[in-house]
């Protein structure tokens, strides 16, 4: 079981080395029960390696890793039954029908039910949850790309996991399917108290889903905090826009509150359509990654990761 304080993931000074190359450098973070943690970073940052170590599929070089109270390198079947994984693609069983496959996979979880968690998920409830009711009796080979991705998600959660890993889960989703998926993640976290760790390159998605965001660059965590915390951590410029007598104005400033105060002193009620745009998650992400990759302000970046945790 997770520790009494609700910590589900506890990663301390995780290191990974291939031959003479370090790909993870003292990665440290925690995640609590019911928390949605989104991991961002450029290609090659170490996201996939980190997740594979947490899933127990890859041995680390150094550091301490505790997942649901167990070192993943020594996790048994009882431990693995509490973990769900949504891969980037699942290409087997094309001749199976949706309901048949989910019933078959779910049967493996029956011995791992507990007093608190009934495993597996009811098949029809699960199919409805991921939006495949109309395709329940269809062969998997006939599903569209978006429907196939929904099935990938269903396969990942069929055992009602306490901890769910998802790698680019909405690749191939149309906007409606993406919105449904976001609702599903919030339901899992809020109602089922499932801890979710996912990777994505979609910063808008990260902002909608994340309780906390981890940003990796060069094998290091360079930021750890909520989207708002990360945006506030960047001392940057804000864009102030407004209209006076129908004419539109835009001004960039590092002191938006003071500037708006001066605007109202000068123009008063003549000001309309006032908008102050602060740094977005995309602005923050690009700034932090650029700093990390250039070696600029490295100490300040590391301090941010510590302060916002």
From TrEMBL:
Coiled-coil zones: 264-291
Entry keyword Transport: yes
Protein localization: Cell membrane
Main location: membrane
Membrane-topology annotation of the record: Peripheral membrane protein
Residue spans crossing the bilayer: none
A Pfam family it matches: ABC_tran
PROSITE patterns: ABC_TRANSPORTER_1, ABC_TRANSPORTER_2
InterPro entries named in the record: AAA+_ATPase, ABC_transporter-like_ATP-bd, ABC_transporter-like_CS, ABC_transporter_ATP-binding, P-loop_NTPase
Record has tRNA-binding as a keyword: no
Keyword line: Antibiotic resistance, ATP-binding, Coiled coil, Nucleotide-binding, Transport
Domain ABC transporter: 9-243
Superkingdom per UniProt: Bacteria
Molecular function (Gene Ontology), one example: ATP binding
SMART domains in alphabetical order: AAA
PANTHER family: ABC TRANSPORTER ATP-BINDING PROTEIN (PTHR42711:SF17)
Protein's UniProt name: Multidrug ABC transporter ATP-binding protein
Organism the protein comes from: Nocardia rhizosphaerihabitans
């Amino acid at each position: 079981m997770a520790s009494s304080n609700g910590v589900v993931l506890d990663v301390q000074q995780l290191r990974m080395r291939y031959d003479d190359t370090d790909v993870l450098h003292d990665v440290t973070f925690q995640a609590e029960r019911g928390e949605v943690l989104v991991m961002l970073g450029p290609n090659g940052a170490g996201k996939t390696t980190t997740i594979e170590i947490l899933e127990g599929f890859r041995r680390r070089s150094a550091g301490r890793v505790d997942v649901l109270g167990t070192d993943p390198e020594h996790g048994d079947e009882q431990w693995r039954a509490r973990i769900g994984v949504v891969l980037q693609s699942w290409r087997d069983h094309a001749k199976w029908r949706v309901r048949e496959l989910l019933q078959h996979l779910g049967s493996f979880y029956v011995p791992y039910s507990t007093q608190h968690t009934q495993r597996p998920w009811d098949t029809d409830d699960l199919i409805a949850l991921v939006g495949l009711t109309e395709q329940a009796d269809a062969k998997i080979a006939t599903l569209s790309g978006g429907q196939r991705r929904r099935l990938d998600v269903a396969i990942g959660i069929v055992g009602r996991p306490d901890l769910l890993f998802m790698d680019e889960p909405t690749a191939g989703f149309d906007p409606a399917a993406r919105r449904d998926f976001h609702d599903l993640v919030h339901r899992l976290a809020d109602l089922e108290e499932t801890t979710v760790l996912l990777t994505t390159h979609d910063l808008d998605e990260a902002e909608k889903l994340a309780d906390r965001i981890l940003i990796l660059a060069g094998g290091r965590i360079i930021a750890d905090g909520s989207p708002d915390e990360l945006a506030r951590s960047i001392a940057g410029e804000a864009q102030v826009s407004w209209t006076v007598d129908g004419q539109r104005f835009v001004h960039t400033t590092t002191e938006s509150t003071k500037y708006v105060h001066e605007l109202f002193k000068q123009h008063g009620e003549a000001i309309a359509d006032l908008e102050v745009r602060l740094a977005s998650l995309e602005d923050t992400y690009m700034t932090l990654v650029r700093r990390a990759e250039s070696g600029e302000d490295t100490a300040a970046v590391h301090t941010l990761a510590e302060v916002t945790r």
